[in-house]
Amino acid sequence: MPGLDDTDHEILQLLLEDARRPYSDIAERVDLSAPAISDRVDRLVEMGLIQGFTVDVDRSLLQAGVPVLIEVDAKPGRAADIAASVSDADSVERVYRTAGGRVMLAATVPQSDASELLAEHVDLGDVNRYEVRMIADSEWAVGLGGAEFAPDCAECGNSVDEEGEQRTLDGERYYFCCGSCAERFVDQYESLKDGV
Amino acid sequence: MPGLDDTDHEILQLLLEDARRPYSDIAERVDLSAPAISDRVDRLVEMGLIQGFTVDVDRSLLQAGVPVLIEVDAKPGRAADIAASVSDADSVERVYRTAGGRVMLAATVPQSDASELLAEHVDLGDVNRYEVRMIADSEWAVGLGGAEFAPDCAECGNSVDEEGEQRTLDGERYYFCCGSCAERFVDQYESLKDGV
DNA sequence: ATTGAAAGAATATATAT
DNA sequence: ATATATATTCTTTCAAT
Q1: Which residue among B49, B65, B141 sits closest to A87, beta carbon to beta carbon?
Q2: If you average pLDDT over residues A173-196, what whole number do you get?
């Protein structure tokens, strides 16, 4: 199990601040060569820590309206469907599905008309109740702190330490707390796949 | 007031998918030259539509624990402070402050112990009540849809159309629905600044 | 917005620590 | 295993149109 050293943290932090920063610039700041940065970034992507490079779009400029947080209390078993269908809406920026059958959306809706957004994208028969609140302010963390690389075991959910293992299945990387969890997971994964 | 054409939309969409994609690659896809892409991206940044280039970090791999949504019901007037102080916590990924004195956090906390996170970063005397819910699934929109560039007037809040105006104050760009709103805003801005 | 030239950055390979 | 130096390739930027 590869951990993260201080340099990895610095690289991550620098990329969080500006993902188009040249590797040579990063290299200089962390006292390494550009190829070394390239290798490390590749590794961070491989590890699944960097999920992608993206652009921070101010959606409030794109969609006339006010930013709101909508909390949807779904009927039993309907939350996943609601989360999936609502995320197709152009005005929806982020979707969280939580335990207890609730779905929280951050969206920008015209003159605080959230009901229309829901009516268009979800079956209101699936909804018990919903609540809309205007967002006054939102921000996202650009800091990482001294966080450790600490994935959860894909099989049992325990945290993975130095003795952990990893497997790559269909391009996705999975982490495990021990060899037996890894094997159990892989077996299950493959039998599921054979079934298809 | 400059609008967005289809090409701008495509560029934005391509950058959302991969912000490190070379401009030459984008150029090919939208049938333009690389320098043209560079100019347009610069304009999108100037407009404030692109707020920055960043990296999508899987924080659940960095912080041992489970992802949760924490809803904090703040005492009157304390929400802004809570939002500010809590966003310093390493485990907090996103903070929304909504009308009605509530703060919603997306965070990753060790063995669903959210109270510790709050206790460490906010004065619990400021809090009426809070609720923690495990996040089962979360995703963010990578699509833009056919959204129009539709900023709200910085002065009156109405939507800004073709006849709108824009001013740049201390490097920040502001949009207005009409000239008088722009003037009022600038006057107020400057008198506030003089006061300091 | 394009072209073409020049500067600059990323990667592959071989090599050294 | 991990970093480096160099060479090659690919990108971006700048000027002129």
Answers
A1: B141
A2: 90
